[in-house]
Amino acid sequence: MAEKSRIGVTGLAVMGANLARNIASRGVPVAVHNRTYAKTEQFMADYGAEGDFTASESVKDFVDSLETPRKIIVMVKAGKPVDGVIEELTPLLDEGDIIIDAGNSHFPDTVRRTAECEANGLRFMGVGVSGGEEGALLGPSIMPGGDPAAYEEVREIFESIAAVVDGTPCVTHVGPGGAGHYVKMVHNGIEYADIQLIAEAYDLLTNVVGLDAPAVGKIFEEWNTGDLDSFLIEITGKVLAKTDARTGRPLVDVIVDQAGQKGTGTWTAIDALQLGIPLTGITEAVFARGLSALRSERKAAAGVLAGPTPSKEVDESLVEDIRLALYASKVVAYAQGFAQMRAASVENGWDLKLGEMATIWRGGCIIRARFLNRIREAYDEHPDLDNLLMVPYFTEAVANAQDAWRRVIVKATEQGVPIPAFSSSLSYYDGYRRERGPANLIQGLRDFFGAHTYKRIDAEGSFHTRWAQDGTEVEA
Ligand code: 6PG
């Protein structure tokens, strides 16, 4: 009988196929399976010679080809397909076998599936995997959640396939239950904010400063050598430099300005609203994609709604201001995302180590960036940090950027260029650094119309003013 495989992958679309190839490339025998057998056959024809693969047509043969306790990576579309695979696998598995959902599942589904699998004697892991197709093949960032003992069973394999930064693999056990998929969700939310901020900087550089796409590409290339050094800034330079073969124009100039989305940014924003955590950068990024999608409405409005007359003056001094504004807004987006993870950790009892999250995001994933080292250091020093902005490195970075940040926002507003992520990040910053805001009036109004009570600055307890409708106080 053929030797059993150490791990299985079901779902051989590009992410699953590349993960299977990555694992096999480390000398690990891998069982492969796909709902449509033709895809498995294609996989074997294309990559079968790369490693020790065992391909099966039926789920039963696939399960039988695995050593026990079985470890099965499910890499199918998030949602119902994951439940379908679990349902099919469950009767064929033995107690203690491990089902690993490595797709972009919504974390409440992971919590539910964990309980359902446990009820059937199985172990379930919800694992965030980031890095796109290439990351899956060459080294992703991996965010495993679930039973720590189950993680131990796959740790060696995960550590061997993950990206490595300064000798440290970009994988760690994130926490129990839905913690892994939660952290991946916030990763994607930050990815949305990062991308939106880049798009706003590009908009300003083209429509306010007056540069063309290749020139803006060169600026991003240069920015990538400093504090902004990151995968997304790097690929922005490349995308802007690309010429469209069909027209000879910059490729970005022929791409329709409507952003797609698969939902993870929306989940992050909804979760922040439920937790009561201000998550302005990510949420504005989701809204901006929504506005971009209203293309025909925008086209109609463009000829109707008035805006300022754009100035013809090209102001190259704004380039450095835009860089600083981008950096400061990015710091805010990360501060908000990390504050959200902290709140979720407390809410769910996950005990997330935020410094470790920054560590495993330094390589492999879409938001990999030099400044994650600084975030890691911040949480290593202060594990219970309320807000990243309070760490001297970030306090100073934003203080140094703030004048430029404000200038950019004024200029963009004067010129009618929308910068929702830049400006909402600055508003958050200004709100966060304010000892006394205007919520006193909100409380006064709530008390007026609904007797919702208020607290006083000079006495303990709850107070209510017996308002007469003319604003006077009703005598006792
Ligand atoms: C990753 C990416 C990946 C995917 C996003 C895209 O970490 O590898 O985040 O998960 O590219 O989900 O999301 P949208 O299609 O919603 O932009």
UniProtKB/TrEMBL annotation:
This is 6-phosphogluconate dehydrogenase, decarboxylating. Substrate binds at N104, S130, G131, G132, H187, N188, Y192, K262, R289, R446, H452. The lineage of its organism: Bacteria, Bacillati, Actinomycetota, Actinomycetes, Pseudonocardiales. The keyword NADP applies. NADP(+) binds at G11, L12, A13, V14, M15, G16, N34, R35, T36, V76, K77, A78, N104. Pathway: Carbohydrate degradation; pentose phosphate pathway; D-ribulose 5-phosphate from D-glucose 6-phosphate (oxidative stage): step 3/3. The keyword Oxidoreductase applies. Homodimer. Residues 180-468 form the 6-phosphogluconate dehydrogenase C-terminal domain. It is an enzyme of class 1 (oxidoreductase). The active site is at K184 (proton acceptor), E191 (proton donor). It comes from Pseudonocardia oroxyli. It catalyses: 6-phospho-D-gluconate + NADP(+) = D-ribulose 5-phosphate + CO2 + NADPH. Pfam families: 6PGD (PF00393), NAD_binding_2 (PF03446). NCBIfam families: gnd, PRK09287.1.
